[in-house]
Amino acid sequence: MDQFGEIFWPPLPVNPELVSFALLELVSNSIRAHREKGVTESVKVELEADEGELRASILDAGRGFDPSLLPYDICAGVETINVMSEEFSKYRDIHEGKRFGMGLYVARKTFKRFVLNFVDSQENPCPWFSGKVKGTRIDLALPIAEGLVAFSLPHSGMAEAEAGETEELAGLEEVDDVR
Fold first, then answer.
1. What would the pLDDT profile of 127-146 be if each residue is shown by its tens digit?
2. How far apart are the first and last CA of the chain?
3. 12 φ/ψ angles, rounded to the nearest 5 degrees
4. What residues make up the domain containing 82?
5. Whose CA is closest to 10, among 171, 174, 145?
6. Mode of pairing for the β-strands spanning 135-143 and 113-119
7. Could you tell me the pTM of the whole model?
């Protein structure tokens, strides 16, 4: 998780702080799922930039989630989702303010490509209702703005977040020096 604050983002068509926020929300959700379900495996985060595109992938073993419990239809167009709706308010109340339903929404709104798959023990996609779900994989991509300088990661492009690292998220969500 510490590596998120050290990432030098390539020139992007969106604010890099939104990219960081979206990724941190997704990783936070994965870590929370691991903690709640007693999973000791790492959450895997991959970042890669080449061929004019920034790609991110998050893979967890948190046993997935029921999409019908979200405060919106996950397949609906992001422009149709109203985060101020009664559904979002009820969702927050049901979860006593500990969940806001924003992670997937922000990622969908921020990244040009958003693919969510529930995966089995071999990391193959499987339907939520199959009974085989081991975790969730989210693949994201954004074009890199043309004609501007690329970036380098100060560490490897792979980061792993342990289930016990959720306390670190509070400080990381307010990083001011995102590049």
1. 999 999 999 999 999 999 87
2. 16
3. -125, 160
4. 2-161
5. 145
6. antiparallel
7. 0.75
